[in-house]
Write a structure and sequence with these properties.
The chain is mostly helical and about 240 residues long. Helix content is about 95%, strand content about 0%. The chain contains five helices and no strands. The longest helix has about 150 residues. The N and C termini lie far apart (about 205 Å). The mean pLDDT is about 75.
Length: about 240
């Protein structure tokens, strides 16, 4: 194997190793993005596109050369012709054909994996950006939910405060009404007391008048009896004179 095909084979093995490393499940895309954003990669990124295109051109050239070699040694007419002229060259031609096919596979897989590697890296970067934006959206949603929950708690507290203020107002109105009722009850009690005293006084006056009336009645009866007695005495004297 010549030096160029050794280099291509090594490049193929390196691509396979890098792809396997990129497929590790315990390394997340955001972590790969942090790794790719190191200062060393930022310096190399300016030459990345040029290097990518240069490697593609080299691999395409090697692939086409391998195709040419395969077609060259795969021609059955040439193999039969060489086998008749040089009987010992049949094995040599097949060895050349095997090497050209090997080089074709190496260069073809190297070119394919190189394109796949670039695509995988770009997808990892896009996935990392999407995951970061998703985390940012989650954080924003959580903050929004927290703010909404806080507003709901504030509204509930305000509602309770308003209800308490309404209750306090109703209690204050009830207290004022109770005070008015107590004042009216006090006035009514005073009026009732005055009326009770007046009624007691009137009862006493009625009792006194009744006693006085009874005394007058007795005095009247006594006077009537005295009058009748005097009249009887007077009538008796007149009867005696008439005799």
């Amino acid at each position: 194997m010549t030096f160029q095909w050794i280099a291509v084979a090594s490049f193929l093995y390196a691509e396979i190793a890098v792809l396997l490393i990129l497929c590790f499940p315990f390394i997340s895309p955001p972590r790969w993005r942090k790794i790719f954003r190191f200062q060393l990669w930022s310096k190399i990124s300016s030459y990345w596109n040029k290097a990518f295109l240069s490697i593609i051109i080299i691999l395409i050239v090697l692939f086409l050369d391998a195709v040419r070699e395969v077609r060259k040694y795969s021609a059955s007419q040439d193999i039969e012709k060489d086998a008749k002229v040089y009987p010992s060259s049949f094995d040599h031609i097949h060895m050349k054909l095997f090497r050209s096919q090997r080089n074709l596979y190496i260069s073809g897989f190297s070119l394919f994996l190189w394109l796949v590697l670039r695509r995988v890296v770009s997808l990892i970067m896009q996935l990392a950006l999407e995951m970061e934006s998703l985390d940012a959206m989650k954080t924003q949603v959580e903050n929004t939910n927290g703010a909404a929950k806080k507003h709901m708690e504030d509204n509930e507290h305000l509602r309770k405060t308003m209800n308490r203020s309404k209750i306090n107002e109703s209690e204050l109105a009830m207290k004022v009404e109770n005070a008015k009722l107590k004042t009216e009850i006090g006035k009514l009690k005073e009026e009732l007391k005055t009326m009770t005293e007046a009624f007691s006084k009137s009862q006493k006056e009625i009792s006194a008048l009744k006693k006085q009336s009874d005394g007058l009645t007795r005095e009247y009866d006594r006077l009537i009896r005295e009058h009748e007695l005097l009249q009887n005495i007077t009538d008796g004297k007149h009867d005696k004179k008439d005799e």
